[in-house]
Amino acid sequence: MREVAVLGIGATPVEEQWEKSLRELAGEASLAAMQDAGLDTIQSIFIGNMMSGSANHQQHLGVYLADWLDMRFAEGLRVEAACSSGAAAFRSALMAVASGEVDTALSVAVEKMTDSPSTEITAELATAADADWETDQGLSFVALNALVMQRYMYEHHWQHDDFANFSINAHANGVHNPNARFRKPITIETYRKSPIVADPITVMDASPMGDGAAAAILVPVEALRRYGVTQTIQVIGSGAATDSIAVHGRKDPTWLTAAERSAKQAYQQAGCTPKDMDLFEAHDAFTIMATLSLEASGFAERGQGVRLALDEEIRPNGRIPIATRGGLKARGHPVGATGMYQIIEVVQQLRGQAGENQIADARIGMAQNIGGSGSNIITHILKSA
Amino acid sequence: MREVAVLGIGATPVEEQWEKSLRELAGEASLAAMQDAGLDTIQSIFIGNMMSGSANHQQHLGVYLADWLDMRFAEGLRVEAACSSGAAAFRSALMAVASGEVDTALSVAVEKMTDSPSTEITAELATAADADWETDQGLSFVALNALVMQRYMYEHHWQHDDFANFSINAHANGVHNPNARFRKPITIETYRKSPIVADPITVMDASPMGDGAAAAILVPVEALRRYGVTQTIQVIGSGAATDSIAVHGRKDPTWLTAAERSAKQAYQQAGCTPKDMDLFEAHDAFTIMATLSLEASGFAERGQGVRLALDEEIRPNGRIPIATRGGLKARGHPVGATGMYQIIEVVQQLRGQAGENQIADARIGMAQNIGGSGSNIITHILKSA
Fold first, then answer.
1. DSSP states of B112-154 as a string?
2. Which fold has domain B4-117+209-227?
3. What is the spatial distance between Cα A188 and Cα A357, in angstroms, rounded to a whole number?
4. Which A residues, 114 through 153, put their C-beta within 8 Å of a C-beta on chain B?
5. Do B128 and A240 touch (CB under 8 A)?
6. Which tens digits make up the pLDDT trace of B319-377?
7. CATH no. of A124-207+236-384
8. ipTM, 2 decimals?
């Protein structure tokens, strides 16, 4: 198995990109990553996306993007794993390069959601849940997360206010990220006054949708010398695991077993423990998901993820900084693209290119992308050398 | 790069499967493949599918299938490349096993099309073409192929009747395949009397949609001894290439450059030439596509693919047998699943399990899956040893 490195990264801002088509978004991020890598051609394209078939009446995004990039005859395929499509595309590209079959892979993820009526997007997001046993009962995605959060608060005796710092930290960090959808800090008052979406989840617990694309170029570590690279950003751990697609199928809906499994795989490959992580791009689609992700990945005891937020250990100078560039909450959650934003944000930190968000001496970083209601979870660990 | 073999295969019949859900179809094919392989668990699932998001209101098929199979915590992701989704899933699984990251991979592909109104399916199929520059002009998929066929007949001086044997051969072979959607032979009269869909394409030039799933288990060749296998079915060549997504973007719309490129890659890896192939599962979605696929893959000169049909060289005892189990025309074309049907049909031939369709002494076989109007083409070569 060949060792694999990230040679280049690129992304568009996450916003309402009504002036740009799906291909322009994916193309811009890809060209930025290629320019960053110093490459003008790529052998294989792995494009992560959840809903272009319905939201943009376009499937077949592999060739669609290869065509736009004028990379005639490159390989192109789309990888879909709902909200974890971004990390799934990255992992597919990783395995392709590791196998020796592919020498230059473009992993890009894109979502363009804001052209469509929000009712359509809500229905489309629900296709990540179980159509027969959840969606048909009228459960939307936020409702599923609200049920989990309600139960978690009851079992572990937390109040809604206790989750505030997840949101406050994300928005504070988003201020300094030019790609972030929201760049205004919030206070505890903002959090308290935020309207309820599905009790107990308020607007300030939930991440906003958006349009955007993020991309990375993967090459074998052994080829880096040829590219004149001095700093190696290596992918040292990768793990993927699923759980029952419906929340009711799990023994304990307040524990993310798929996160635990995928993180464990990634730690083992990397020869690391949670203590080695300088930062963690967690999947804070909802404050409850950030909590559960921290616990299952070994950063907190069961029921105590909230404590990390209360103690401000998730802040840039804390024990385990999360959402360092705004997270899903402030950078935004263009669903199928989110996992690739997480990856490039880790790379930015390891390169020392995170500007005012820079985590001091960041050497090892982790990204965890969650699909569905915790049913598909993919973890990557990257290291600077 | 580890060498990879197919350890087990399974499939459902292609038909109108109104009594079975999407997960039951994918699950049945997968369980059949696992039983054939003698495995009761799998590490990673790569599921090929084009249109479940719209046709079945269900995405996120990796976890959806892992859950149904009760393979809690297995990796699961979906691969989409329109009509070439099946081969794209197989190639992804192949690279995962080749990389050393995955030891047992399930490549399965499923499509369930006949529950939806045919107008919806026609619109959904069109998402494989260019939404902005083809579909919005009112071009359906059959219309795109009709334009190509019209031009091909004009340039190379063929008549419609000259294509008849593609259809006659496929239907003759389908009679003996229990998974085939149509099991009745047709005659030249049937072909001549067939109603036009989009001039010059008639019903007998076009493959039928359907519901179905096909699956294969991939493992490293080095592990075969552990599984007690005596016959090795190895994947010796794999190639993938794209072309412009819109037909008008190509210098010559009557030449499948992506087929030429992907076949060349596969031949080079395999150390083979077209002459070494004992059979070829070509992508006969339309008779014109079978013709163009034969030419670009090196079985006929430019403009002379039709000659192979006229001379009956594509029959089971001919120079290059195609559609040996009915092809897309008679076995059926459950769009995203088709590429996996082609793969398992090659495996059946190499194992000597093709019944009355058996090609004598079949040792090396090729499958080529075409996505869109020739814009995404994936070729695999398998060998029995």
1. --TTS-HHHHHHHHGGGS-TTTTGGGT--HHHHHHHHHHHHHH
2. Peroxisomal Thiolase; Chain A, domain 1 (3.40.47)
3. 21
4. 123-124, 127-132, 135
5. no
6. 999 999 999 999 999 999 999 999 999 999 999 999 999 999 999 999 999 999 999 99
7. 3.40.47.10
8. 0.96
